[in-house]
């Protein structure tokens, strides 16, 4: 019965390391919660889809002298249409310009944009078919779902409009509102991988937190920090000195993963400027991850525990910042014309968005300035917190 002795010994060791056992049990729980949060409502028909409407329609004066704008009426229809089984609106509609609508689609703040032409009302009034453009990222599943819903809603609206025209004594057999599906310029051949590749870079950057936490904890355990404290080294010297090489690692990760992504089919758009910007963005994300590693090392008691805690924190964060899939809209306000969501408190969320804009959609520095500023500010805050906690818990001078 020697196996019982071995089993008893291993069970006692497992129970003795309660924190390690806690991490083992909690890690799958985090994945369950994250995937439930992301996919729990998938397939339900009561979730509003965000769309942007660009209305160029100039309106028309009808024979009776009445001014009417069918573009406005179409927009109101999209705002008011609800799912048949409940009172939930099908769409969250944002009226905006075409340039801003393109940016919202690139940010995936909306699933699609609708462009109503300037002669829309005139065409309807003269029973001439008019083309409404539905534009989006053709490699994004949310666009496919939304454009199908829009086609259905516009088809029903066109049927009702045709019925009114026929009641007025006009026969209209041809479809008045014709939909045209367009991809964003340059994205027609995109696949899901073009969205995932920048997310993989964010995943690699976030995993730096685990390595940093493990190394810092190992230096505490080996007594290296105790010897360094005797040299009158300051907390800033130690932590900022470690920040520099790890930032270079983050930059190298971006370049290596970018090269691999290109080799396996990533549709990169842009020149050397986009690569330079992506490296800068990667370094900012790396600083945030290093700061997170400091925070983890402030509480971990051993290198294995630091590795477990780092993985427990970094991997769920990867999903929470939208590295692998589109996050549900959770808008809590607006600032500088930008929607503020709960994810905006995480610097890696802005890093992921900025990398996608630069590498996938080829936008300029001005376009990503908002994301960059927030990433820098949040990373700086995280670094200050990391320095404070690590200094207090690990670098406090001995009283002896």
From TrEMBL:
The keyword Transmembrane applies. GO terms for molecular function: ABC-type transporter activity. GO terms for cellular component: plasma membrane. It holds the Pfam family ABC2_membrane_3. Its main location: membrane. PANTHER family: MEMBRANE COMPONENT OF ABC TRANSPORTER YHHJ-RELATED, MULTIDRUG ABC TRANSPORTER PERMEASE YBHS-RELATED. Belongs to the ABC-2 integral membrane protein family. This is ABC transporter. It comes from Methanobacterium bryantii.
